[in-house]
Write a structure and sequence with these properties.
Number of strands: 0
Largest sheet: none
Helix content: over 70%
Strand content: under 5%
Shape: globular
Structural class: mainly alpha
Order of helices and strands: HHHHHHH
Length: 191
């Protein structure tokens, strides 16, 4: 969620660096909202037909590619719009998948675990402000996008380690043995 939050909150400033007009960026943002809402329906529903890990990995992979490409796309409204829309799509789909995943993994305790994840949204907002305050003036928007890219790659690697390869939605024995697994899963879900 962190890369999606950052791009969603700063795409206009990033687009201004490439000389894109405000009206174009407003249109990009409006379509971004449509991508966000549509992805909540389509990609979360895909968990009824496909395993979690491939769906989530595909979403993260596309978001990672868009984070790499976005800094080179700021001079072209269509390319920049596509990168922003992909980030909105990833953010929306991840939000919609959280309840499905927590109920499937934790059954009756799913609502409790989802509560941990939902509580992390506030932390994400605070964390984002802290990152921006500490680094953006020094490293700029491109540098911040690279930090978001690093976060997305870290989460992809973490998911690869945490989730079992052969099960639709379950997590590794290491995490199952941990008495803090609910909180750990909640924090990972937020990222």
């Amino acid at each position: 969620k962190c890369p999606g939050y950052y791009v969603g909150n700063s795409f206009k400033q990033i687009g201004f660096l490439g000389g894109l007009p405000d009206s174009t960026l407003t249109t990009i943002g409006s379509f971004g909202a449509l991508f966000n809402g549509t992805s909540k329906i389509l990609l979360a529903s895909s968990l009824d037909y496909f395993k979690f890990k491939p769906v989530y990995s595909m979403i993260l992979s596309v978001v990672i590619v868009s984070l790499v490409v976005i800094q080179f796309s700021i001079h072209n409204a269509y390319a920049f719009g596509a990168c922003v829309w992909i980030n909105y799509l990833g953010d929306g789909s991840m939000t919609a998948m959280l309840p499905v995943v927590t109920i499937n993994i934790f059954k009756n305790r799913g609502t409790e675990v989802y509560g941990y994840m939902f509580a992390e949204f506030g932390f994400a907002a605070i964390y984002g402000v802290v990152l921006v305050q500490l680094f953006q003036a020094t490293i700029g928007y491109q540098g911040m996008l690279l930090i978001m890219l690093a976060i997305a790659v870290f989460i992809t690697g973490t998911l690869t380690y945490v989730y079992e390869f052969d099960k639709p939605i379950s997590y590794s024995k290491l995490l199952q043995k941990n008495k803090y697994s609910d909180q750990i899963f909640g924090v990972l879900g937020f990222w």
